[in-house]
Amino acid sequence: KAGVTQTPRYLIKTRGQQVTLSCSPISGHRSVSWYQQTPGQGLQFLFEYFSETQRNKGNFPGRFSGRQFSNSRSEMNVSTLELGDSALYLCASSVIGRAPEAFFGQGTRLTVV
Amino acid sequence: DQQVKQNSPSLSVQEGRISILNCDYTNSMFDYFLWYKKYPAEGPTFLISISSIKDKNEDGRFTVFLNKSAKHLSLHIVPSQPGDSAVYFCALQTSYDKVIFGPGTSLSVIP
Predict the structure, then answer these.
(1) Which of A 44-83 lie inside 8 A of B, CB atoms?
(2) Backbone angles phi, psi at B82, to 5 degrees
(3) Residue B61 three-state SS
(4) Residues B55-108: pLDDT tens digits?
(5) Secondary structure of residue A85 in the 3-state scheme
(6) What share of chain A is helix, strand, coil (3-state, %, to 5)?
(7) In the sheet that B19-25 helps form, which strands lie side by side, from edge to edge?
(8) Minimal Cα distance from B37: which residue of A?
């Protein structure tokens, strides 16, 4: 069974640009969550999608947005990039209503210069 | 506001001894309590969980303890092995499936 796949693995963007990250969950998983990891901050929850609907949202500015498609694949978009957006962005998928654990992808390392 | 705290940013333990990682939280709304392990350049991997109705769950070398009155969660690893060296995150999940992670504790197991 394939794991969670995130693309691209690495990305370098300049300030002011926008970026789209992609996440393909494990087959059969309908919930996809996104996290930002920065040194010393742990994993900060961005948002969670289930059946194409955003169910939960963290405390991030509106520049951070996401969506989920009918096949459960998800994308997150960051507009008007700032230097502080440099981080590892992690996607996790899970099966709602069963075991609570989530399965993470390897992440996308975004560097804003 | 920091709802979840892991007050030890790092921990060093001798191989074969017990590793104890701690997690404290401020809110009683959580249904599940989980531990994840993370190696550099990889996503976190699930280790063990406990529901709010239990106080202990064991899986091999890993045991999670939950003290709801103290709002305290701990992970015991016995015996510790060098391959256990990683960053450990506690994660707390509400009934609405919202998950809050702690800041992590970096464990080093010394051979």
Answers:
(1) 44-45, 48, 50, 55-56
(2) -55, -35
(3) coil
(4) 999 999 999 999 999 999 999 999 999 999 999 999 998 877 778 899 999 999
(5) helix
(6) 5, 55, 45
(7) B4-5, B19-25, B72-77, B62-67, B56-59
(8) A104
Q: Tokens at residue B97, please? A: 């499936």
Its sign, for the CA torsion A47, A95, A28, A42, is positive
- A43 min Cα distance to partner chain B (Å): 6
Contacts of A94 in chain B (CB under 8 A): 97
- φ/ψ of residue B8, rounded to 5: -100, 110
Give Dmax over CA atoms of chain B in angstroms: 42
- Give yes or no for A92 touching B (CB within 8 A): yes
pLDDT of residue B58: 97
Could you tell me which residues of chain B have a Cβ less than 8 Å from any Cβ in chain A? Answer: 31-32, 34, 36, 41-46, 49, 89, 91, 93, 96-104
